[in-house]
Task: structure prediction
Amino acid sequence: MKHGIFKSNFALILSAFYLEKEMKMTDTAVVNPQNSGFINVFQFQKSEEQITIRKKVLVNKINFLNFKGEVVSLVFESTNDGKVIFLQAYPQPCTDSGLICYWKSANIDSGLLAVHRFRKLLLPEKKQALGVTLEIKKIDSDSVHFHLPETCVIVKSYESICDIEFYQGDIGIKGCLVQLKPFTIAVLPDSDPPRMFKNIDPESTIRLSFLNNGEVVFESEFQIIKMEQINKINYLNVEPVNDIVPRFPAKLSRSIRVAICPTPEISFLHPFDGKLVRMTVVDLSGSGFSAATKHIEVALFAGMEISDIKLIILESIEITCDIQVVHRTIEKNGKNTCDVTYGFAFTKMSFRDFTKIQEIVHQAEYPNARVCNIIDMDELWQFFFESGFIYSTKYRIFNANKNNIKETYKTLYTKNPEIAKHFIHLEDGQIMGHISMLQFYENTWLIHHHAALTSTRIKAGVLVLRQISNFIYNTIWNPACHMEYLICYFRPENRFPAYFFGQYAIEYKNPKACSTDTFIYTTYQKNKSNVQLPNAWKLSKASTLDLVELKQFYKQHSGGLLINAFNLNKGNTESRFLEEKYNKLGLQKEQYVYSLKSGNQLKAVFLVNTSDFSINMSDLTNSVQIIVVDSEDLPKENIHHVLDILSHHFRSYSFPILIYPESYAQEESISYEKRYVLWVMKTAISDPYFKHVNKIINRVSAQKNKSRRPN
Result:
């Protein structure tokens, strides 16, 4: 039988005045309900709030208060004018024979006690107070002695949780929030409450602002469900207008969601009152999670933001992050109980913790998947050779530097750095597929080193692409990832990346979301002789105006994303942000931007990237990229002169160069080794791409399943 779905109501109490929490903390408080004075919060209760408990339960509650060193409050009523006073006392260790309490203030006036009759004993408990009517055996200026019955009736009452402000049209009321199955909201109005209560339109929504220490921590619209008056107190039963507040627009793809065993737990301080809240995580993804609790224990609203939560996974992993409530579902499972499931979206998290969650989610969903795991380096190198990724020509290039390369890759694959991420597909413990990414510009990551063993090339190659796609998809919400753009270089004759990356750019036809530009690639050897540019030619660090002119040229020629991805649209072209990250790992990363001019005419821009040798195995990260802005009267010899001047940035005798546009190389008859297509995607507009990837993955999976069917 399915449980019914319902929304929890909230009561808005309009009263003349409200007994503030601070007053209960004083030694003596005077209340006069007859003259519209402060109204005791314990008079707000309905009859169903009364429950009967046994003496043993009462004794345990009192002893717990004594253990914590807390006080109880005794309520007395004047026999002359009905005024009420509160006296605080320390409860002593309690037994079945009775209870003794010593006054908090010394030498209570016996004359005061003589003209007041005892009404009830108030016991603090969590967010509520328990009112108990007991018989006094003895009372004097030092203490009071109570007789404890076998059973007694207690009345539950709730203390102030936080201040609120209530708005509807021109009506503005201040008050406070108190708990009452699940919430009672008590309001301290600014003017005559009966008049204001009559002015409330029950058909219109109200806006409630919740304040903690004078600052608004949450506000939202509520709908009035019921208006009533109980014991001359006006109530409004209300419910949130929205139980769903999406963090992001609806997307074509969804994050992987998995149930983790053992079950994770979250804990945080409630934004309203700072009380500790614990909840059980139902499922987890790279962008958020859902958690369940009883609604009488905690109440959250869609849209509420919560800071510094602790997410405990697998008992040993603790992650600190910020979240936002995006939805809640309330399901009744009994007369007075119900379960609440909340959906949360991550809003802030370190990149390192983000990677931990991705690793856990991916492996739970795909047991053979590994995300940024520590790898046996011998196994990785064996995979690179056996898959043919390191072929004979490539190996000959970096053989002389192989020891340095080994150390570089050991850092990238065993120290879990923030600048590099890798994705592995395993079968029987053997690496079958691999792809990785490298943060190479401030907000841009390079996808590279995509390889798979021949026996499972298509399958493993597709599976690691699925892994990296899922990872990237979940970075969109997290600015700590610095993943605004993705780039990759591929040779157009390489069908696999041309299909996965290039084909999408062709079909999507939106260069502001995904673009391709073709470079010619060759290796340049240093010229030992001193060279100089011809007269009227000048090489200098690129200025802001140079970059503006470069941007205009590229916009007309391509209209793609290269300028943004290469961080060339800012005046600060030599940002140290990324360099510091590399240096902390003992790695090199430098970027310089130069402009070549003839007179005052910008001819070309040279982007110099230097890094550890073969951090990208094609050494594209240790190269000079040349963007020719004006090819007229720009002989290739001048390009060679500039490269000779810039060669001091490189340790090796030769270094790669990439020239754009490729038409310039054809015009100047520049010989080249290969062509590379630069693919760039803006992650904020990447949803269609992930749909494209999923379609390919599903197609490959269908073909695989078809091949397994018996004839």
About this structure: The radius of gyration is 36 Å. The longest helix spans residues 687-708. Residues 1-48, 180-184, 186-192 have pLDDT under 50 and may be disordered.
